[in-house]
Amino acid sequence: MSAFRSVAAVTGVKHCGRRWEQENMADVEEPEKKRRRVEELPEKMAVDSGCRDTGDWEGRWNHVKKFLERAGPFTHPDFEPSTESLQFLLDTCKVLVIGAGGLGCELLKNLALSGFRQIHVIDMDTIDVSNLNRQFLFRPKDVGRPKADVAAEFVNNRIPGCNVVPHFKKIQDFDESFYRQFHIIVCGLDSIIARRWINGMLMSLLSYEDGVLDPSSIIPLLDGGTEGFKGNARVILPGMTACIDCTLELYPPQINFPMCTIASMPRLPEHCIEYVRILQWPKENPFGAEGVVLDGDDPEHIQWVFQKSLERAAEFKITGVTYRLTQGVVKRIIPAVASTNAVIAETTCRMYFLFLFYSAYIPLNNYLVFNDVDGLYTYTFEAERKENCSACSQVPQKLQFSSSAKLQEVLDYLTENASLQMKTPAITATVDGKNKTLYLQTVASIEERTRPNLSRTLKELGLAEGQELAVADVTTPQTVLFKLNFTS
Ligand SMILES: [Zn+2]
């Protein structure tokens, strides 16, 4: 389990390859030589010029036909080779790619080259210069523009017949009717909250008749994730196979070192850097006026933290504090590695293919991990559904508390429980026939008004055995219902 835990630690952290890029580039070439090399580059790269052909040429889809029009040793017994599959792929199939970053660029390229022509892409980010080492659909002139727009332009220009529609938005900006139009959704995200939200959205699209799932309401979700040299790719059939929330325990909580360790018993170089960042910076205000915020992108700030961390490390005989580690800790950087993105995107796209025509191949069942930190290791296992998963199980969630427990304890449970991990839960209940907000923290005025409830007991709040509590949170588009169960 622990191996999975670390490998599945994909995400939650904003990926950034700037540091990695700078240092590696500097190692290989002297600055002057590099500058000349860059200046000599023609304005456009060969791949930037679009392809003049507009239609299909002979043999264009031969590579795809090999998969769709003949059986093979791994094909499912029910598979019937057909020429119609290619036509479906070219003309009908509609796919949504979420994320146009490191993974997203790879996914878009792979899908477009495999014959998918109706692709939508959502990304809320703009292009930063540090993205350019691996997000290969972007050029220096694109810095500052929306990733979705530039990625769509590039692919449409380069691949005849492909129509990528960009959305420079958040996934939360769209409703059910938008998501319902797709045959499949592919995620290359770097946030667990966004993954859980889209997972919840797909669950809300499911329809059940007499408790039986209508298979036509299922939109498969393929999810890729990378973190440095580790990555994973998985297939989710909403309502049928393990969902993101079923395996929430795989995502480790964000690492925060205990303050007592940082303050008095540091053991790791990271502890020393955290000490300077959290305690020494606000106390010494090295850059003038009080309240200057430590900026991870300011080399002078990082240099100051680095020097002070070295002093603290020397005091406790700890080695390993470097400038690079300092910036990594301050910015919570996990280096992005282009090759990992390529492997994971390729795997995700291949799964996409297998799934779409899933009678064609025995589907990957259902979770692949990839790790080339030390040698190369890859493995698949079947993630199992959780019987009482709050996102996909249809089983009412239980909250077991004593009637003298305070609302604060319920709130802590919702945020700290490994299988719930909510962020800012808002709790409402129907008391005496009236809908009552017990606690809501996202609106300051309501937070202030409901805060006293946190120190009241469930009984004092008028809640009874079997009472339903409705909980809303950023991790899901739906309200989660909990049934209150009083323990004696
Ligand atoms: Zn689930």
From TrEMBL:
Source domain of life: Eukaryota
Keywords for the protein's UniProt record, in alphabetical order: ATP-binding, Ligase, Nucleotide-binding, Ubl conjugation pathway
E2 binding domain boundaries: 399-487
Pathway linked to the protein: Protein modification; protein neddylation
Pfam families: E2_bind (PF08825), ThiF (PF00899)
Active site: C260 (glycyl thioester intermediate)
Catalytic activity: ATP + [NEDD8 protein] + [E1 NEDD8-activating enzyme]-L-cysteine = AMP + diphosphate + [E1 NEDD8-activating enzyme]-S-[NEDD8 protein]-yl-L-cysteine
EC numbers on record: 6.2.1.64
Function: Catalytic subunit of the dimeric E1 enzyme, which activates NEDD8.
PANTHER family associated with the record: NEDD8-ACTIVATING ENZYME E1 CATALYTIC SUBUNIT, UBIQUITIN-ACTIVATING ENZYME E1
Family the UniProt entry places it in: Belongs to the ubiquitin-activating E1 family. UBA3 subfamily.
Protein name: NEDD8-activating enzyme E1 catalytic subunit
Organism: Huso huso (Beluga)
